[in-house]
Design brief:
By secondary structure, the protein is mainly alpha-helical. The protein has helices at 41-47, 51-64, 69-81, 85-98, 103-115, 119-132, 137-149, 153-166, 171-179, 183-196; strands spanning 12-15, 18-21. Strands 1-2 form a two-stranded antiparallel sheet. A hairpin with a 2-residue loop joins strand 1 and strand 2 (18-21). Helix 1 (41-47) runs antiparallel to helix 2 (51-64).
């Protein structure tokens, strides 16, 4: 794999008393195409915060296209957003067992482990995912969250910057990016974000 495409995650992090070593390349060394927002109805529903509808649509997608692992990852994330952590975990485990080389499923599984407080397992899932596909913006965003929790702010911010470059239209990534801006820039960016999301119902924003 091209060195530019390897995961830049910092040098090491301390999780639950154990040292987890990771590759050390900066975000600037990652060369990936910018991800365009999917216009698939399930992805649109998820971006708009209608997670119940998103799950139903992702379920139909995966039933019609069993090899569509992104649709399965979408189901997992929708369940997670609905607070159905046990169901999301069961689906992730069975799907990942059948498809251990899926970066999308590894990242979704890491999100569940992070929600469960199983940080070492989350870190392992993200690291493996980034080795398989260092261009997944969502994985870099999730890695940012974990690094931030562990007070590795510089490394975490680097991952957030990379995630935003890769997918500036992801609502979670966009909002987190705004939160880390200087106050003088943050206000204008918040106004722009609210204008872009004005069509989304308030309870789904």
């Amino acid at each position: 794999m091209d060195m530019k495409l390897r995961a830049g995650i910092g040098t090491a992090m301390l999780l639950l008393g154990g040292l987890v070593s990771v590759p050390a390349l900066s975000a600037q060394q990652v060369s990936c195409p910018i991800q365009k927002p999917s216009m698939d109805p399930a992805a649109v529903a998820f971006r708009q915060g209608d997670f119940s509808k998103a799950f139903e649509l992702y379920f139909l997608d995966s039933r019609n296209h069993p090899s569509d692992l992104q649709a399965i990852a979408g189901q997992i994330r929708s369940l997670l957003q609905e607070g159905q952590i046990s169901e999301a975990s069961q689906l992730a485990e069975s799907s990942l067992e059948a498809n251990p080389g899926s970066a999308d499923l590894l990242t979704a599984t890491g999100e569940i482990r992070l929600r469960q407080g199983r940080l070492t397992e989350a870190a392992e899932a993200y690291q493996t995912s980034l080795k398989l596909d260092p261009c997944l913006a969502r994985t870099r965003y999730d890695w940012y969250q974990l690094l931030w929790i562990e007070s590795m702010r510089a490394s975490g911010y680097e991952q957030l910057q990379t995630a935003y470059r890769l997918d500036p239209n992801d609502p979670d990534i966009h909002l987190s990016w705004i939160e880390r801006l200087p106050l003088s820039e943050r206000i204008q960016q918040i106004d722009d974000y609210l204008e872009k999301t004005a069509h989304i119902p308030a309870d789904q924003q």
